[in-house]
Design a protein that fits this description.
Length: about 350
């Protein structure tokens, strides 16, 4: 199963909104078929593994990281009939698919056909691999990663807003790799106005080479302040401007004429409701979001308890000053006990920087 999970991971950043799945066919102690899901609309891992195995699949064992599907509400045929037809004697599944269209039905159909089914081998590892998919299925909202580059004393910019570059080249390269694995990048209008980022996923800077798959660029802009000439509105990738129902319809029309998607969403005291934005993205097939905003957006996402994972790139630099911009804005909690504590924390070196990751 470990090998099947490694195969599944090859689909990282390519399969959304589908899960990553890997499969192996083993006959007489030898692997005779391998497969992993390459992307939406393409054959599932089980089908590819069984095709490679051919007649050798008869009475063999199929290892698969996620329950085989039975439903027809997708672009590819269901996998369970093909598994049964192949003649495999046993199917070993890492975890049940949480999708209500599948959830246990694939396993039941296999058992009714006389196939021996074992469930739960490397379940924890399989769930961790597809945590984004699972969260999206269970909540309807994308899995949210908050990323920030900061000094050791938690500053992301000087009082005047200078922030390029706090972290080193290796950290910036890794951020582009991270961008390639998510469905969307979310920033606030303040970040766009101050930094004018393009928010594209790049393979290289010099010469500039964009990744084949670009995440959706999402700008939370409650008052439609972003300039029409902003780089984030370029045609290198899709852009969504999330605003409120209070803004001028004329401004919205001008953006839509340029091919920019605009979502008019609920607001509270003039500010966009982030939970409504994430629900909108989830409904439209966005399963993961990387927040690369400033201290205001970071604080709003954390305060709303919408962040699932945190990645902090810390440079060996001390900035100092109460007027410098902190990684999390807004007011501090009244008591230390109210602080947010990370779980499953990892710490590693990346060039001269230190990367701290953890779950919330």
């Amino acid at each position: 199963m470990t090998m099947a999970l490694r195969l599944a991971a090859k689909g990282r950043g390519k399969t959304s909104p589908n899960p990553m799945v890997g499969a192996l066919v083993v006959a007489k102690g030898r692997i005779v078929g391998r497969g992993y899901h390459h992307g939406p609309g393409q054959p599932h891992a089980e089908i590819l593994a069984l095709q490679e195995a051919g007649p050798r699949a008869a009475r063999a064992t199929l290892y698969v990281t996620l329950e085989p599907c039975t439903h027809l509400n997708k672009r590819t045929p269901p996998c369970v009939p093909a598994v049964i037809e192949s003649g495999v004697r046993r199917v070993v599944v890492a975890m049940v698919d949480p999708n209500p269209s599948v959830k246990g039905r694939g396993l039941a159909q296999l058992r009714r056909a006389g196939v021996i089914v074992t469930v739960g081998v490397a379940r924890r590892e399989a769930a961790h691999l597809n945590r984004t998919y699972i969260h999206w299925i269970e909540t309807g909202r994308p899995y949210v990663i908050l990323k920030a580059g900061m000094t050791l004393d938690g500053k992301i910019a000087t009082a005047r807003g200078e922030s390029r570059w706090i972290t080193g080249a290796k950290a910036r390269q890794e951020v582009h790799q991270l961008r390639r694995t998510v469905d969307a990048i979310l920033v606030g209008s303040g970040t766009v106005i101050k930094d004018d980022p393009s928010l594209t996923a790049r393979v290289s800077e010099y010469p500039l080479k964009l990744a084949a798959r670009q995440p959706l660029r999402v700008v939370a802009d409650s008052r439609l302040r972003v300039s029409p000439t902003a780089k984030v509105l370029s045609k290198h990738a899709r852009t969504l401007i999330a605003t409120t129902t209070k803004v001028s319809r004329a401004k919205v029309g001008l953006l839509e004429q340029r091919g920019i998607e605009v979502a008019m969403l609920p607001s509270v005291r003039g500010r966009l409701v982030l939970r409504a934005l994430l629900a909108y993205l989830g409904k439209n097939g966005v399963t993961s979001v990387l927040i690369e905003g400033g201290s205001t957006l970071n604080a709003a996402a954390l305060r709303s308890k919408l962040v699932n994972h945190v990645v902090l790139y810390m440079a060996p630099t001390l900035m100092g000053g109460q007027d410098a911009r902190a990684v999390i804005g807004d007011r501090s909690p009244a008591r230390l006990a109210q602080s947010m504590k990370l779980r499953n924390v990892t710490v590693r070196r990346l060039g001269d920087d230190v990367v701290v990751e953890g779950d919330l």
